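User: Hey, quick favor. My workstation is busy. Could you predict this chain's structure for me?
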Amino acid sequence: MFDRRLAENFEWLVLLVVLSLCTVGIMTIFSAVVEHPDNYMQNLYFKQIIWIGIGLAAMTGCFIVSYKQVDRYAILIYLLCILLLLLVLMLGRYVAGSRRWLVLGPLSLQPSELVKVAVVIMLARYYAQHVSTDGLTFRELLIPAFIVFLPCVLILKQPDLGTAGVIILIAGTMTIFVKIEKKTLLSLLLMVLLAVPAAWFSLKGYQKQRIITFLNPEEDPLGAGYHIIQSKIAIGSGMVHGKGFRSGTQNALSFLPEQHTDFIFSVLSEEWGFIGGGLVLLLFLVVILRGLNIAYGCKDPFGTILSVGITALIFWEVFINIGMVMGLMPVVGVPLPFISYGGSSSITMLVGTGLLLNVGMRRFLFE
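Assistant: No problem, here it is.
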């Protein structure tokens, strides 16, 4: 029997805002690719509509069944995603020097995107069972470290530094939320500081160049610094009101690279200006604040931690992408949630939204 309280507690505002962001994304992708000389590129906006449709169906499935079922099958979900990452390394398709995609007939799947949600679910399950007022000890953090370490190693093999970094940031946010024992926290901070030099020398040449370019993009304006420079020109030229839909010169003249994926916010800002870009950021803020409110209102530990993890996923991807296109962070290839072109990314974000809605509409069951 249907419980009317499910509808009463449903986060309609979150759904409306996410649908609005998806609509903005489709419009911006259309503007970015419709005049491209390549016919394949011109049809990307239509493919994005299909991906959004698939993602909305997946989102609906994610909030129809209680999120406690997700808790029950967390290990299976995680292992399936690890298996997909292994298949990518063995059978994946090379694109631009990286092996990140599994080809499934006419479609391509990027498992590293799905892993983000799988790690959130797995960590939420573990932390819900081990949370304490004293905080997690070093020994209790060994299993979460392995949960994060395994997919990150496989993702770095592709290589995809940006996605691995996002997963680490999400895991760190969730871990700090559930509380770490003070002594353990200080030890971890010291270990991170000591690991920084080793991490630098382990980076590939192009990854080091991205960081150097971030610090001084004008050093190589026609090479490594080109992306950031053109992105900042596009954003700045939009000024307050923007140049209007499909009127951005940086995009139309193909000065702006990756305009439909990583740098789509630059296209949006050039066409709609500070006002349009600011409204989009405001919509993201609404989703993030409502996500935190869902976590605060849930009395079930798994539901609370799951909501924090999904909200952290959205926050970090927005933070990194916007920082990247504005030249405030290195270019690491992180998409803008709900807006950038990409089937796997769109489905992952909509699945995460479905889980967030799921927790929100069932909060009353644990009061």
